[in-house]
Amino acid sequence: MDPELTASVESALGQPVEGVEALDGGMIGDVFRVELSDETIVAKTGEHDLTTEGRMLAHLRSESDLPVPAVSHSDPDLLCLEFVAGESTTTPAVERDAARHLADLHAVEGRAFGFPFDTLTGPLEQPNPWTERWVPFYRDQRVRSIRDRASDAGTLPASLASRVEQACEDFESLLVEPDHPALLHGDVWRTNLLTDGERVTAFLDPACYYGHPEAELAYADWTETFGDPFFEAYRRERGVDLDGFFERRRYVYRLYPLLVHVHLFGGEYRDELDETLALLGY
Q1: Taking the model in full, what pTM does it have?
Q2: DSSP string of the chain?
Q3: How many other CB atoms are there within 10 angstroms of residue 226's CB atom?
Q4: Measured by CB atoms within 10 angstroms of the end CB, which terminus of the chain is less buried, N or C?
Q5: What is the structure's pLDDT at 171?
Q6: Chain centre distance of CA 42
């Protein structure tokens, strides 16, 4: 067993650790299954302040019925979570269950677009100042924010940055305002789901904010996490009109995660960003 992790968990929870097993982790930490004397938990450690993830999970649990792990301890260096069994396997039944959960989540209204505190997408800070309208929030706090960060770091070529700005200038005509600021998980893709083949047992690793549900749908579409069973069920659950979403708006919403991935990983994501901008006419 890892002596440092064992000591940290025992100090945080006041229980002896009987076993530790490394699990597949996310981008912002190492993840372990930890056996205590009377329960099993998940412990996460990492270089980034883990209190943000703990606060996001607590917000989702308090403001919605989305199944997320309960937080038993959170500090900058250690996050202790409820252990939830499951695999990252999707089936049509899982897709329909995910649609029901996300439709319910998106019915939770915020006072504006943003969040009570800045959050994280992977290891990157996500600014969330309260903003009255969606389009300016998405343009300035999502796309322009990461574009500027990537440009300053030299991970985004100037030619691509210029084309992104041309698209930003047209967001008012490319996008639509939602009925209300909706609570979003923010990072729904296969690796962040635990399932049992019929339902989602837990949504993991959120990147929360109040925004347009279409941004969440576009991300799930881009990552190929869900297909027709999900979108058909989501339409039924929320009674929403997605006309124009698949034809154009989903590509506008791809710009943000693509810029994040260009900044973090470069390579093929630069090509995909180039192709997406060209598809949109920029």
Answers
A1: 0.94
A2: --HHHHHHHHHHHSS-EEEEEEE---TT-EEEEEEESS-EEEEEE-SS-THHHHHHHHHHHHH-----PPEEEE-SS-EEEE----BS---HHHHHHHHHHHHHHHTSBPSSBB-SS-EEETTEEE----BS-HHHHIIIIIIIHHHHHHHHHT-S-HHHHHHHHHHHTTHHHH----SS-EEE-S--SGGGEEE-SSSEEEE-S---EEE-HHHHHHHHHHTT---HHHHHHHHHHH----TTIIIIIHHHHHHHHHHHHHHHH-THHHHHHHHHHHHHT-
A3: 25
A4: N
A5: 98
A6: 19
